[in-house]
Amino acid sequence: MNPSSIRRFVLTLITGYLAIFGIRQIPYEFPNEWGVIIPVLVVVYILTIWLDGVIFKDNTSDNTVVKVVDKKIQKKLKNSKGFGD
Question: CA–CA separation, 9 vs 68, rounded Å?
Answer without folding.
Answer: 24
